[in-house]
Structure formats: structure tokens, C-alpha cells
Amino acid sequence: MRSKRINRRTFLKGSGVAMALPFMENMGPMAQRAVGAAANSSAVGSPVRMVCIGNPLGLMPDSFFPVGEGKDYQLSELLQPISRHRNDFTVFSNLDHDVTGGHSAVHAFLSGIKDQNASDWPDGNISVDQRAAEFVGARTRFSSLVMSPGKADGDLKCKLSWTRNGVNVPPVTKARDLFRALFVQDDPALLAKQQSAYDVNESILDAVNSQAKILSQQLGSRDREKLDEYLNSVREIEKKLGMSREWLHKPKPIVDIDEPGEGSFTYTVPAFYDLLALALETDSTRVASLGIPGSIDTADLGLSGSYHGFSHHGKAEKLRQGLLVIEKYQVEQMGRFLDRLKSIQEPDGQTLFDRTMILMGSGMGNGSSHSNKNLPVLLAGGGFKHGEHKVYPEEKQKRVPLCNLYGSMLQRFGVEVDHFNNGNGTLTGLEVA
């Protein structure tokens, strides 16, 4: 018996709101394209956390990558400010995503996939931080924090975090707003509005489930399987709504820190790092990304000129030295963050640093030449064996995907994956301590 053809305008409806159906064979080709366009803690001890730090303009290769490999490598100029952490981080050479495009490919840093190619992959261009955030769900008040100390437009915007639906997660750009979200109790009137919104959403989902049962009777076996997958995602939303509702009535942590104000780049970056450390310590989140914008004011670093302008140095020594100042500041502040994590003791006797993976790098391999090859990547903490410069094959045929590192990070985080996005496994040579 042939199943009934579904009209391309068929939706699951409830409470005046419609939810578009997933891509199904029982729709005609035109309907299928329309739907596609519309859709366009660890078990033992303290939980593992993940922090990803990036910028859109890269790090100068000859200043970042060490000389030599293994444990006996020579610290590069950019790594000198974190020499005290030498045994607690690993530098990787010749890892990238095999994508091109200069500025237009930088946003693939944490996903390995350019946004325009997301539809070609089962999980879209979801970034590693958001994949980890899905795993955390509502176990913390915020499944992830996405931050950027300042706004930027176009190529100078650091677009790190992407959902599996191809949506770039907008960052919090003011330290004050981040502080209030984390530690300031919400107004009772606002809580009441949020409670009402949860009630409406749950009634919609109830109605959608009823509609889906009727629709299922009109589908063939393969389309029923797709509908079941879709409904499973709806049930995940229901589950998250239920768990998120619980957070409405849980008081936020009380911390001994004043609300930050507005300030220059050299004020804002440390403020964001301090708030992030507190967010991890209070288990307000276990996943975070921090994107340094490419439009920072360099005056408070003693420079005259734009960050973007310095990155296009063309080997001019004056511009190179200016860029080195900007990049060194970023490394210094990351090192200060590592200091802070090492000072925080966990209930199981380890430090917060021991339980937190900190990834630093960029989707730009060389800002001056617009290369997306051999990306600057450093991984600290998280319970891995560190203290090395790991050099992987440079030949194209033997190239190792950067996403293999992300697969290892996700496994360490507790996610059951055998690879991540365009990776072909996990990263050989990276072991848990």
C-alpha cells in the first residue's frame, strides 16, 4: 500500500505555533528542499570542563611554534610568558582543517567545517564546545558560556561557537552582563515571565506530540524512522525545559567580587577571565569559549594602529613587533588564567586546572599571508600528559586533521564519539595522565 504524499506545508501545530517537519521521502522534491531551507561530569570525581580560546587573526608562526620537538623543544618567543606552565601544556604543529579562504575560513576553527558546507555533514558545523555543551545539557545553569571582550564586525569578529543547525552563537560582550547573568539574583517579575514561557513551551510540545501520532499513520517505514528521530529531539527539548525550570528557583552563587564596569581592552580581558574562573569553580557552567575580537583598541598596549593592520605586516619589522605585543598580551592573560585555575582546589583533591581542558589557537595560520594551514594550537590541563611539542606529518597525504584533537577532547569530556566532524579518529600521541 502506498503511503499518502505529505504536502510541503504540513507542520506539527500546537497552541498557535507550528514546528516544521524534518526532511522526509514522502514529501515531493520541492517540499524536501523547502524543509531543508527552513531547518537551514565525569562519573567519578569532579566533572571535566572545557575552555576554548581563539582570535580571528592567528599567531605569527615563527613567534609561536617552538624549535625542536618532543620534551626537549626550545620555547618560542610567544610561549615565554607561560614558561612556568611548560610541563602542563602541549603545542601541536601541522594540524589544520584542510580548508582555504583566509578570513572567510577562520570561523571553522572549532568545527573544521565552513558554515556554507554545514548541510553536507550529519552534525552540521557544530563546534567542539557546543558538542560538549549538548552533553552537559541542563546539569549546570548554563550549558555553555560564549564570550568576547568587545564587539567586532565582518572578518574581525571571532565566530567560535556553532550549533548543529549552523547558527553562530552570539557572545556576551560586556563583563558586567556576564557577571549579572552568573551571580545576580533575577527580579521576581522576570522569573514569573520565564516561568510562564516554560508553561507555554510545554503546552506546545504536548500538542506537537499528539499531532505527530496522527501523522505517523500516514508515513512509510523510513519516514516513520525519521519522524521518531525528530520526536526524540523534541523529547530532549522537553527534558531540557523541565530541568531548566528547576534553575529558575535555585539561588545563584554568592561570590566575593564586585560587579565589573566598562573599560579598555586591558581591563576587560582580565575581567572576563576572572569571571570565567568563578563560573567554572561554582559549576555554573562546564563549557566556555572566549573569542578575542580583531578590532581591539591597541592604544592601551602602547601601540598606534589597528590589530588587523598589524596582522598584515608583510614582514615589516615595525608591524611585526607591534603584532608581537598584541599576541604576547593574549598569551600572558591566558597564562594568568591558568594560574588561577591551579590555585582552586576541587573536592576530590585535584585542582580546577587538572579537570579543565584549555585550548588556545586560531583558524588563521598566518594573518599576513591569509593562510589557514598549520594552525597555531596549544592545549593545557585537563588531565592529559603534557610538556611536549608534537609535530605531525607535513605532507598532504599524511596530514592529520585538527578535528582528531577535538575527538580526543570530547572523549576526555565523557562524550562517546569515535571521531568529530571531518576528523578520522582521535589524536595519536595524546594520552591521559
Number of helical stretches of at least 4 residues: 10
Major sheet, described briefly? 7 strands, mixed
Mean pLDDT: 85
What portion of residues is helical?
A: 25-40%
Numbering strands along the chain, what is their spatial order in the largest sheet?
Answer: 6-7-3-8-9-4-10
Q: Count of DSSP E strands? A: 11
CATH class of the largest domain: Alpha Beta
CATH architect. name of the largest domain: 3-Layer(aba) Sandwich
Supply Rg: 23 Å
Q: Element order, helices and strands? A: EEHEHEEHEHHHHEHHEEEEH
- What CATH calls the topology of the largest domain is Alkaline Phosphatase, subunit A
Tell me the overall shape: globular
Structural class: alpha/beta
Domains (count): 2
Proportion of beta-strand residues = 5-15%
What distance separates the N and C termini?
59 Å
Uncertain segments are 7-23, 28-43
Seen as an oligomer or otherwise, the chain set is single chain
Question: What's the short version?
Answer:
This protein has 433 residues and is of the alpha/beta class. It has ten helices and eleven strands. Helix content is 34%, strand content 11%.
Q: How would you characterize this protein structure?
A:
The chain folds into two domains: 291 residues, 3-Layer(aba) Sandwich (Alkaline Phosphatase, subunit A), CATH 3.40.720; 61 residues. The strands form three sheets. The chain has a seven-stranded mixed beta sheet with strand order 6-7-3-8-9-4-10, with helices on both faces. Strands 1-2 form a two-stranded antiparallel ribbon. Helix 4 packs parallel to helix 7. The protein is α/β, with parallel strands linked by helices and 433 residues long. About 8% of the residues have low confidence. It has ten helices and eleven strands.
